[in-house]
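retry 2 of 3: previous attempt timed out while embedding hydroxy diiron-OXO moiety. Reduced batch size to 1 and resubmitted. Inputs unchanged:
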Amino acid sequence: MLNKKIVDLLNSQINKEFYSSYLYLDMSNYYYDKNLNGFGNWFAIQTQEEYAHAMLFVKYLQNNSEKVVLNVIAAPDKTYSDFKQPLEASLEHEIFISASINDIYAEAFAIKDFKTMQFLDWFVKEQGEEEQKSDDLNKRYDLFGTDARGLYLLDVELASRTYNAPSLVI
Ligand code: OFO
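retry 2 succeeded.
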């Protein structure tokens, strides 16, 4: 059993992870629509990763005999007027998700819920990597993406990204 506030925060995080998956699917669709299929692929893989994260939170609640509450997933409401904007929005989103994970961690720490802290350790590390990955893509776009040949080569590179299931097993 877990503390009620922790359960509420974890359920809210499930919604945020599913929303992240939805948001990245929207970004993926944006790039496919522009024939930038490598960028589309990169975000399609982000979509899969976020879905897997949501399911890890689901599993954690189930393993602790807590009720999983599924709420409405908001529709992504951003429109993009150039190729850079989804990249910036994804970095901003990852920073928001990191803060959300940190808030749950802080609550778990305050009530000495060491089990939840241990579970969240993986996400703290993962968010650090996600922010880094997104920042790196933004910087590489700035370097190469504004030149047509550079954009083409970057798109080819991003097309080779493949999905790896999360290393966390619970
Ligand atoms: Fe769920 O990994 Fe980032 O957002």
